[in-house]
Amino acid sequence: MPMESDPLLGICSNTQPVNVQSSVSTTGVVGVPKEPWRGVAIKPLLASVATGVVIWFLPVPSGVTKKAWHLLAIFLATIVGIITQPLPLGAVALLGLGATVLTNTLTFKAAFSGFGDPIPWLIALAYFFSIGFVQTGLGGIFLPLVKSLCVACGSNAGDGTENKLGSWLILTCFQGTCVSSAMFLTAMAGNPLSANLTFNTIKQTIGWTDWAKAAIVPGLASLIVVPLILYLVYPPSVKSSCDAPKLAREKLKNMGPLTKNEIIMAATLVLTIGLWIFGGMLNVDAVTAAILGLCVLLITGVVTWTECLGEAIAWDTLTWFAALIAMAGYLNEYGLVAWFSQTVVKFVGGLGLSWQFSFGILLMLYFYSHYFFASGAAHIGAMFAAFLSVASALGTPPLFAAMVLAFLSNLMGGLTHYGIGSAPVYYGANYVPLPQWWGYGFLISIVNIIIWLGIGGAWWKFIGLW
């Protein structure tokens, strides 16, 4: 045993005097080095706890139950913790769930109900699928393809080269998915819900063509402007790669024909996407289709369960996203969302403004309240019909109001790293730090609102939507 590992043994076996003063660590133990603190970051923890405590003891507004208010306090404290990260995200979420159970704000079953929601599992399954693409070298879905491009340009997550290309590319692709989701009725799971609620509320139908016709002009404008804005404010250091096509051709040639595993991976992807598209006819939902695809990969050995267990980001994302879904869901269950909607109705309706200004205020409240939601569909289900009813009552053309609310229900997903299903996947690539993700998310939200209400408003006037 080395002498310095045991000071007493060192004294007994060595006749030379020991410099006790130099051997005493800051902990007061001779010869034992001080271990780095592996626990919570104190200042971020205090900020999170202080947020929850202050809100907890504020007077409960009229019309809100004490349990709903206390859940809001814990939810906001968890959000602050997720932003400041006193611990990894999954650990912060577990602390939040633990607080809901400890304070009897939620039962254990309710607190962990988010783990039964299909969305977190669908995200985790997407990570497991990506293992197959990495193992086989078959980059056939968008995020693995983007990550492969980043790596090829020497931009890797976690080694200080993120800003060479990956940070800008990942953030741009993510914001692009929010825009493309707003452009077509079938592009996001919550869009058919918006159309259904529109019919139930104002008895008007939004068809696929109606949606695409209204969204195509502002959508294309956003797809052009948003990457340019991000290029200016968050530029990559690698701005050109003239050799990329040549290198791609050379690597493709060197790879030779498809291997057995690549064929299996490609066939599994086609099967899974086919079930996602036509699963409604077969009564197969998206998560079931993804599980079936993963089972094929596991059975054929393209992906092993050990590799799935080692995908730490997937399990961490599953944990914190499920926790937020549970808390956000019970905020709605406890009536806080309904109270908020009714309060907005009374406030905006009492201002006596024109319908244009009133609708603008409603849109901003609807859009930025998404910070409190971990799902676009959940936000739509909780607030879409109420805000559409208010807008119509204040004189906004009903179909116009419905379609604008539906478009913004997608664009608001770009605010946070948990606001829409694709957000945790892109954020989990670890190219963009959380402060930048939120900061640029807010900036792009302003850009999108200007484009969609400005260029979009003129286009909607031209096509007679208002």
Characterize the structure shown.
The structure is a single chain. By secondary structure, the chain is mainly alpha-helical. Among the domains are: about 1-35, no CATH class; about 45-110, no CATH class. It is built from 22 helices and no strands. The chain starts with 6 loop residues before the first helix and ends with a helix. About 40% of the residues are buried. Mean pLDDT is about 85; it is low at about 1-25. Belongs to the SLC13A/DASS transporter (TC 2.A.47) family. DIT1 subfamily.
Architecture blueprint of SSEs:
Layout: H1 7-13, H2 20-23, H3 42-57, H4 66-84, H5 89-102, H6 108-111, H7 118-136, H8 142-152, H9 166-183, H10 190-202, H11 208-233, H12 244-255, H13 260-282, H14 286-300, H15 305-309, H16 312-333, H17 336-349, H18 355-368, H19 376-393, H20 398-411, H21 422-427, H22 434-462
Helix pairs in contact: 3-4, 4-5, 4-16, 5-16, 7-14, 7-16, 8-9, 9-11, 9-20, 10-19, 10-20, 11-22, 13-14, 17-19, 18-19, 18-20, 19-20, 20-22
